[in-house]
Amino acid sequence: MKKHHRLAAMAALALTAGMLATPAQAQAIAIKIAVVGPTTGAVTQYGDMVREGVHTAIEQVNAAGGVNGRKLEAVVIDDGCEPKQGPTAANRVVNEKIGFVVGGVCSGATIAAAPIYEQEGVVMVTPSATAPALTDGKKYNFIFRTIGRDDQQGPAAAAYIVDKIKPKKVAVLHDKQSYGQGIATSVKNQLEKAGIPVAVFEGINAGDSDYSAVITKLKSANVDFVYYGGYHPELGLLMRQGAEQGLKARFMGPEGAGNPDINAIAGQAVEGMLLTLPADFSQDPKNTELVKAFKDKQRNPSGAFQLTAYTATMAIVDGIKGVGAADPTKVAAWLHKNSIESPIGKVSWNSQGDLNSFAFKVYEWHQDGSHTPAP
Q1: pTM above 0.85, yes or no
Q2: HSE of 10 in the Cβ direction (CA atoms, 13 Å)?
Q3: CATH architecture of the domain formed by 3-147+283-343
């Protein structure tokens, strides 16, 4: 359905409902927010992080009386973190006449779904999709992020490698997907600008169980540092199999590898892995009460995406409050023109829906699943 047809139909439906419903009944209709991300597949835990943030925000908003007298309702939709499932999830959002989305989670699925949200006039705020290709050159009006981009994350990783690690030879690997290959390329380019030799740059097949061939290539090239663009299952295997085969190299990855499940995959080899992650906003004193709200529900406020997801939800809420209606077109325009105060700081967007500023930090990962600022 074309956007103008859909919006006309929704307007007619709203007018009819308004004529038939009393003010009390109209206020009783919940504002639905779709929470799109993986509930199945290898990276389900990233979806869990996002859902924890959204549910905490919705609970707090509803406890305070809702938005303009209306409660919020989360509608969880699975996209498996798969590009082929992204449009299917987006079409479900459209068919259920939901005007707001927090998600997707993975860049590939989000990139595939975004044109549908844009065409149908659905506000989408992703708290975790970092690939520049999501927004570059698209001229979207309805697509936003509450996380930085890989061309911000990549330079942060490269700067740490150059300034702190000072390796002799680096390998940069990736999973051949939008997110992984994009950030790996960014790191490679930054390293080469700094004069650090990239001895190996290639993709591996996500989902494989044996990376012996690439590890042999790394050993032959005398690589002493490996950057991997992708998710935790493959990075965990690379580290474990590298240790088993005597590869003497330190590993680093992006925020998509920051998953406690990597410990079970990598074993002892995970100790000292480096990661770029959003700053741990749970340590900010201004977030003390919010952190308690998470912990009271046995949720982890210090993960990579919980507080960016909370912020994405509150951006939608503030937009609805700002325009006085749950109108996606007006909310999108409001977000482009305004900033909000949030647990991750003051948030504002540029013309293509990217954050005007966002900082990634480098952390060191430990065997118990914790992470600490890298020295």
Answers
A1: yes
A2: 20
A3: 3-Layer(aba) Sandwich (3.40)
